[in-house]
Amino acid sequence: MMSKNLRIANSNFIDQTSRISFKFDGKILYGFKGDTLASALIANDIHLVGRSFKYHRPRGIMTCGSEEPNAIVQVGNDASMTEPNTRATEIELYEGLEASSQNCWPSVNFDIGSINNFFSPLIPAAFYYKTFMWPANFWKLYEYFIRKSAGLGKSPTQPDKDIYDHRYLHCDVLVIGGGISGIIAAKTAAKNNLNTVLIDDKNNLGGTTLFQQNECFKINNSYSNEWLKKEIETLDSIKNLTIKTRTTLAAYHSYNYLLARENLTDHLDLNEKKDKIRQRLWKIRAKKVIIATGAMERPLIFNNNDRPGIILSSSIKKYIDYYGVKCGQKISLFTNNDSAYETAISLSNSGVSINSVIDIRDKSNSLIVKQAEKLGIKIHWKHTVVNTNGYKKINSIEIMKLSDDGTAVVGKKIKDECDCLGISGGWTPRVHLFTQSGGKLKFRDVDNVFLPDKSELDQISIGSCNGDLELDEVIKNSVNSINKFLNVNNNDYKNLEIISSKEIDKKNIWLLPSDKPFGKTKPFLDFQNDSTANDIKLALREGFKSIEHVKRYTTTGMATDQGKLSNMHALGIVAETANLKMGELGTTTFRPPYTPLTFGAIVGRNVGKFFDITRRTPIHDWHVKCNAEFENVGQWKRAWYYPIENESMHEAVQRESKAARDSAGILDASTLGKIDIQGSDASEFLNRIYTNAWSKLEIGKCRYGLMLNEDGMVYDDGVTTRLGENHYIMTTTTGGAANVLGKLEDYLQTEWPELDVYLTSVTDHYATVSICGPNSKKILSKVIPDLNLSDKEFPHMSFKNALIDNIKCRVMRISFTGEHSYEINIQSSYGKSLWEKCFEAGKEFDITPYGTETMHLLRAEKGFIIAGQDTDGTMTPVDLQMDWIISKKKYDFIGKRSLYRSDTIRDDRKQLVGLLTDDPNEVLEEGAQIVLETKKQPIVMLGHVTSSYFSPNLNKSIALAVVKNGKKLKGQKMFVPMKNKTINVTITDTVFFDKENKRLNA
Amino acid sequence: MFLINCPYCGERDQSEFSAGGEAHIVRPKQPTELSDDKWAEFLFMRKNIKGVQLERWNHTHGCRKWFNMARDTSNDKIHAVYKMGEKPPIK
Ligand SMILES: [Zn+2]
Fold first, then answer.
1. What does the pLDDT average to over A779-793?
2. Which residues have CB atoms below 5 A from the ion given as ligand 1?
3. Which chain B residues touch A256 with a CB distance below 8 Å?
4. Would you call A906 an interface residue with chain B, using a CB distance cutoff of 8 Å?
5. Can you tell me the distance from the alpha carbon of A893 to that of A787, in angstroms, rounded to the nearest whole number?
């Protein structure tokens, strides 16, 4: 069959001089500048654009906007730029556009899944839910097919090359929606010196009034569209007004915080898109918000209402009046309200032949119906469509008379041939954003609509989203509301002479009857997810009562269109079936985003290396130069180990660990948290936050401290040094630094404001070089020759100020490895040169740089804990066998009272122990479970391994673990069951190496 | 996303703040004299009310000061912010 050209000559909005070529399903087609993909497809007589999700029924373009359920397409075929689930009705046509149908395989015209349609009685509501409950083996069988044939589009497989952006925007008034009421609102606000922003998701302002050229709708003797055009032209000259088109309001949060996505390049030709920002997410904080989002037309729910060529009546109007495209050659209209007659008149004026209008009402005497009758348009009053025919496109409809109560059909069936059916079930105000913002809705019975009621925010809804559906009401009520809301008096619109057809006769039937019994018909509700009125009724029969449950069970409203079209019908049918009033049933809550957002827009520029902050020490470059592998510790990059040539991690760590104990090792410890503590109550403060006593610590001495939470569990640890009478420097774990500072500030500000203490984070201000090993003293004496390093003058756990090349530094003699060792702190900018100086001085002793892995191994040999590895927020100091660090004398410290709660004094708590494997070469896995009994089931798990290494200094495997009642189990044989074997272990002391601490002073 | 009026800095975006749970829970001055139950009450028990709740907030990415807030949990309306140590301005 030759495809026809459905374009008519005249349209003010389409530039018929600039032709655009594009591809759809591989076929080259042409459209014009101003087209959407949908309007261009219809102009090319292409109506079948996809398949339905479950039954794979052919589906066509149904709307002209964001509520489109069927024309969901994949744009582009580049592995990094392709985008699924876009609506053909919203894609502006551009040169080079490539799009293809989704949800059909192998092709839209021949679809394997449509076999489901013939078996549809076997696929009732919740088919997929029920399928999931079948045995797992079954699912494997189906998954491949279902996934492939259901196909909700293809994800890109390569990183997105486009640029996305985020920006903030603050304004006095934000107007959402650039239809007639939004324009009036924006103009009024801006003219009254309010900084105003007007946004609209289309490429131009004006909404549907922009192409409303009809005798029945006039303002001051002009057609409504002509009047509005003049209004729009004046907007350019208004100060304080920013207009953003192609901008969709995605989310409306509390305190008038809103997110809007601006499309900057999606409409540009393929070669113009490059290197430009594709989309920008605006983070808007508005003092006042005016919602003017309009209303959307409802479909009608009747047998086989889903065939390609069945289109919303108002969309047919837009296609003809705006795009200059006729949706068919012989069009019928099916309605329950007056608005379909506007479409009929537009079609008639454009010379498209109209079969008839089928109206379920008994009559309507409004202006617009009379005008349609005058044009000779045939109307079937009190009739309904009982069936439609045509597989890939509608070719006829069957009409019957409605019974008086509207529940059945009577009389003879009339067959009407048509290639397009416009449907109109009335209007649904777009209250989505209002409800997103927390607003409560009320129900209006006369035309079955939910309307904005109460809101906590400084906002109003105006125009048809507020339930004003007639032109004169829209203008009059909007003007009044705006003046009141902004507390201004704008008289520009006071004396307008408005002609507006009035709809008086109203009738609504949620589910239209057919001559076939219910259950044999296919009245679709959710076109994308393929749920029918039958499914809703089945769910109710199966006992579902809540609308939220019915929705989830039938998947009505759960697709990418969020059920925008048919939510009201679902509610209506549930209410009718359950014999409830619509208003009592409540409505479902609409969640953001209003239309889907790209991931790109959500993350903006926070991708790749900007995803998170990377912190590097001042010595980082040296580690890189020396081939260090790095480990992420919080945001820090820490040198992990330094492989030489082809060394494995294990080999490198073994070498480093041995070298540090045999001669000398050097570690970059700059990442440790450092908090400067000053004030006359500094000692008292430390007394309260650490478990041990601090008042008697001499100036120049260091002490290890353990910090608990109020619940008695170990929180953090580190060495704190007394620099002066009222001055300390505290170190924390690398990962815990920020939280520790926050916690200390919390106590100071809220519990103990009387304490004279000041905290400053100085982590980044100092670089820390740690030298350890039997030769560390010799190395340091080369670096700082005039410092007396004798044990008497500079003993373990003490501190000295020193000068290196005239640069001040602090030297602490402290040790995390059990070796004689020093930590030198110097202003960050000198960190690297200090490191190099130490390294140079250590060369004659083969000083070996070591990373975090070796540090962990060395401390494990000594049984030193790492907070966060050997503790997990459930370990008290007693559990860690660190009773020695709990002061008996102090009256109070954070967590003290919790150390003798009934739960913390249980003796079967998990306690830290050492673990040795019977086979010294067997290294346990960290996290492995420990059991006493392997035969009798259930096997009781008594603990787990927290740290495990092969120690080169002991030449055997060592581990730390937490085991129930472990303290008393020293010498106990236990088991670590692994996947393929069971490992025999013995519980030991936690200190494996140099139990007498001889090496500290070696 | 709230707009929070920090008592020290003025109106700032919620993303600059962090919440710190129920306010006006004073750490007992003599914990050692409390029974397990009384101590557990301080340690674990928190109200979770629908309505106006007094809660602690910290201007983490600003002045780092702690302050209190009276917020209606049912609609997120902030009725008042006040400094630590001050009495709640509403019941
Ligand atoms: Zn502040």
1. 96
2. B 6, 8-9, 59, 62-63
3. 3
4. no
5. 37
Predicted ipTM beyond 0.90: yes
CB pair distance less than 8 Å for A746 and B20: yes
- Domain residue limits, chain B: 3-83
User: 3-class SS at A23?
Assistant: strand
- Closest by CA position to A582, among listed A448, A417, A692: A448
Per-residue CA distances from A11 to A34, A205, A351 (Å): 10, 17, 14
Of all residues in chain A, the percent with pLDDT exceeding 70 is: 95
Residue whose C-alpha is closest to residue A897's, from B23, B20, B37: B37
What pLDDT does A116 receive? 58
Q: What is the CA radius of gyration of chain A?
A: 38
Q: What is the dihedral of CA A66, A71, A76, A77, to 10 degrees?
A: 140
Contact A334/A424 with Cβ under 8 angstroms? yes
Q: Does B40 touch chain A (CB under 8 A)?
A: yes
Can you give A89-144 as a three-state secondary structure string? CCCECCCCCEEEECCCCECCCCEHHHHHHHCHHHCCCCHHHHHHCCCHHHHHHHHH
Question: pLDDT tens, A372-399?
Answer: 999 999 999 999 999 999 989 999 999 9
What's the mean pLDDT when you consider all of chain A? 92
Q: Which CATH class is domain B3-83?
A: alpha beta
Match 């055997």 to its residue by tokens.
A956
- The string of pLDDT tens digits covering residues A597-621 is 899 999 999 998 899 999 999 999 9
- Residues A923-939, mean pLDDT to the nearest whole number: 93
Contacts of B30 in chain A (CB under 8 A): 892
| Number of continuous H segments (helices) and E segments (strands) in chain A | 24, 50
**Contact (CB, 8 A) for A434 and A451:** no
Kindly state the tokens that stand for A960.
């730390």
Q: Residue A300, Cβ neighbours under 10 Å: how many?
A: 27
Q: Is B32 on the interface with A (CB under 8 A)?
A: yes
CA-based nearest distance B40→chain A, Å: 9
DSSP A747: I
Rounded to whole angstroms, how far apart are CA atoms A473 and A465? 12
3 state DSSP class of A241? strand
- Collect all residues of chain B within an 8 Å Cβ-Cβ radius of residue A891: 32
Subunit contact A750:B76, Cβ cutoff 8 A:
no
Cβ–Cβ of A896/B31 closer than 8 Å?
yes
Q: Which long-range contacts (CB under 8 A, 24 or more apart) does A880-889 make?
A: A880/A714, A880/A911, A880/A912, A881/A911, A881/A912, A881/A913, A881/A967, A881/A990, A882/A706, A885/A691, A885/A692, A885/A704, A885/A705, A885/A706, A886/A691, A886/A692, A887/A691, A887/A692, A887/A693, A889/A693
Number of Cβ within 10 Å of residue A727's Cβ equals 14
Domains observed in chain A: 163-295+429-500 (3.50.50.60), 672-765+774-810+833-838 (3.30.70.1400), 906-1001 (2.40.30.110)
Residues A185-213 pLDDT 10s: 999 999 999 999 999 999 999 999 999 99
Inter-chain residue contact B1 with A255, CB threshold 8 Å: yes
- What does the block give as tokens for A777? 């003293």
Spacing, Cα B22 to ligand 1 middle (Å): 19
Give me the pLDDT at residue A924, please: 97
* A395 C-alpha to ligand 1 centroid (Å): 68
Query: Cα separation of A316 and A347, whole Å?
Result: 9
State pTM to two decimals: 0.89
**CB neighbour list of residue A810: distance below 8 Å, 6 or more residues apart:** A721, A723, A729, A766, A799, A800, A801, A802, A824, A825, A826
Q: What b-and-e string marks burial along A571-587, b requiring 16 or more CB atoms within 10 Å of the CB? A: bbbbbebeeeebeebeb
Give the closest residue to A654 by CA, choosing from A815, A848, A945, A918: A848
- Helices A313-321 and A339-349, packing angle to 10 deg: 30
